[in-house]
Amino acid sequence: MRTRLLGHWLLFGSVGCVVFFVTIAVVMIDSPRTMRDLHIDERRLVHLDAIAKTLDCFWSYGEKTLPDDVSELKAWTQETQQLVGVSKSYCRLQQLSDPQTGDPYIYRVTSASEYELCAVFATENSGTRRAKSGYGSYGARKLKSHKSGEHCFALTASTPLLLGKQG
Question: How do the domains of the chain map onto residue ranges?
């Protein structure tokens, strides 16, 4: 009888542990939809960073002005990279529109060297989340912290270090 009672306790204890750990795993692991949203938001950040880098190049090689419309950058990058040998990996536009909706990113000039880049994010990021997709290096511009929904980053055009000082 004691052996049978001990067997029941071991069985119920084992089942209890399994249920406990499965519950913890479900709570701690994000849903596939959340993971997809995080991945798309990371792509948005990478796109915005590429636009910002290209605006830096435009500002550095131009008359220290920003374009009226971000779509001007596509033709400019193709011409300028061939003429001046700008690093193609630095001044390269990846995409001017949202990967999920296809809507263009919002670009507003706020002064001679300042502008805003805006996107609609699916998730909130306090800046502590690390990139899981391997997309990369948007950290240098501090394009990390954002709320879900529309968020704008206030940025300043500057001469990229790899281009050196322009006269």
Answer: 35-160
